[in-house]
Amino acid sequence: MSLTRIGSIGINTGIAFAGVTTIVTLNTANDALSIGATVNVGSGITLGASGDIFATGVSTVTTLKVGSGVTVSSDGDVFFTGIATGNGSGLTALNASNISSGTVPTARLGSGTASSSTFLRGDSTFQTVNTDLVSDTSPQLGGDLASNGNDITMADTDKVILGTGSDLSIYHQSTQNFIRGSATASPLYIDCCENLNIRHLDTDGSNAENMIRAIGDGAVELYYDNSKKFETYTNGCTVTGNLNAGNVDLADSAKARFGTSNDLEIYHDGSNTLINNSTGELKIGGDHIELRNAAQNSTRLASTSAGALELYYNNSKKYETTSTGATQYGNLTIPDTDAKIILKDGNNYIQFLNTDKEFKFMNAWGAGEFTFYPGGSERVRINPNGLLFNGDTASANALDDYEEGTYTPTDASGAGLSLTINTTAAYTKIGRMMYVQFDITWPSNSNTTDASITMPTGLGLSVSYGGGVVNWTDNGNPLFIHVGSKIYIMDNNNSLGNSSQHAKNNEISGKRLIGSVWYIS
């Protein structure tokens, strides 16, 4: 069927085009087709009286215009400038970029109805918008979360947890703030490009005071109440104020130095411990000071709180100072022959064992004494007069001289006889008392002068009286000795000698005389 031209026709009840496949011209500038009711084109297109198009099948239309609102092209595109309705089951794709303007206030886009209070989920269902995320137990972000100038507030103990294994958490608990890493996580790093400052604020957030400052490529500073107390520098660190520490470990030869010019040094060189002081005096103060062994169980030297200084040997006290002097426990030995002990007060002194092995007591006024009390009573007294015994203080009784020596007796008769010395003659001088022993043999002679021998000389003696005895070894008859200016041999019987009983040289010729004599100077 072909409908080519209808000048003007009114159709009020409807025209059905059955089998029509091509409409060449439906509307021109001079001709118009008015359809007042529904027009069915085949079985697939229904044109409504108000311009609506219902398409349920396939229709080939070169160009179909319905009023000024709907145009159907020959390739199946439908262009709407009005309103089109349908069930949408045949629309498999909708390109949103081709919707260049206008709004869709309400649409059926899956299960549920779109509105200003819903949003379309990924599972094609609508979800009611709820700004309280508490009801969503697992909210997730598809991108960055921007605060847009607003705060994120969290209650006590609520945490910001970072890391797949919840390795880092940040939170506030009561009056404390925590940045806490887990025990198994990596170290906690705080990185900055320049300076890192940790400051203290007042409760209102004002009055920032330094606590820790870390300066890029520079010092680290520690503060107390905004006052710097510790600072690192190129060669070490500086402490301002006191340093209270536990153990301080230093390597061998590393020194603890004190003073602006390092005047005091304490260190261990690997073998020995050294304390070096280069300026002034080294003073060690303390009410009670002890030097002990490394095990701290044996005292070597102690300065007690009572003022005493004590010296020890193998933890046994050997010397102690007291308020009146000092106490020695045990022996005092001076092995060096050149050693001296001198107790001196001005010009007064006591000197023990000098290089000449002498004992000296010197008192500038000559009034000094030594008194010895063995067994608790005075036995010996030494004063400027000499040696006194058993408490005697009389100067006339003082022993002021003692000497021992040897000498060679010679003939004192003037006869020029040569005596034979059998044993070296000896003498002992005690005060004014002189004791002489001799053993001689008289030479054979016929001289008749009085027999006599010399006495020890060079002792500064003025001889007085004396006497002695001689054993005449040949016949056992004793001979006595008379002392004047020399020692005379005297005969005991009147058959020998003159009236003074002096023996003659010829009377004792060839005899051995062993004798001893006492005399007073």
Protein described:
This protein has 521 residues and is mainly β. Among the domains are: 10-80, no CATH class; 188-242; 251-283, no CATH class; 284-332; 370-400, no CATH class; 403-520, Immunoglobulin-like (Sandwich), CATH 2.60.40. It contains no helices and 41 strands. It has an eight-stranded antiparallel β-sheet with strand order 34-35-36-41-38-39-40-37, with no helix packed on it. A five-stranded antiparallel β-sheet has the order 15-16-17-18-19, with no helix packed on it. 9% of the residues are buried.
Provide a concise account of the structure shown.
The chain is 0% helix and 37% strand. It has no helices and 41 strands.
Helix content: under 10%
Major β-sheet profile: 8 strands, antiparallel
- What is the CATH architecture annotation of the domain at 403-520? Sandwich
Q: Which class of secondary structure composition applies to the elements?
A: mainly beta
Our count of helices gives 0
Brief descriptors of the model:
mainly beta; five-stranded antiparallel beta sheet; 37% strand; rod-shaped
Structural topology:
Layout: E1 10-11, E2 16-17, E3 34-35, E4 39-41, E5 45-47, E6 53-55, E7 63-66, E8 70-73, E9 78-80, E10 118-120, E11 126-128, E12 159-162, E13 168-173, E14 176-181, E15 196-200, E16 209-214, E17 220-224, E18 227-233, E19 236-239, E20 256-258, E21 264-268, E22 273-277, E23 289-292, E24 299-303, E25 309-313, E26 316-321, E27 326-328, E28 341-345, E29 348-352, E30 359-362, E31 370-372, E32 380-383, E33 386-389, E34 402-407, E35 420-430, E36 433-441, E37 452-453, E38 466-472, E39 478-483, E40 487-491, E41 512-520
Parallel strand pairs: 1-3, 2-4
Antiparallel strand pairs: 4-5, 5-6, 7-8, 8-9, 10-11, 12-13, 13-14, 15-16, 16-17, 17-18, 18-19, 20-21, 21-22, 23-24, 24-25, 25-26, 26-27, 28-29, 29-30, 31-32, 32-33, 34-35, 35-36, 36-41, 37-40, 38-39, 38-41, 39-40
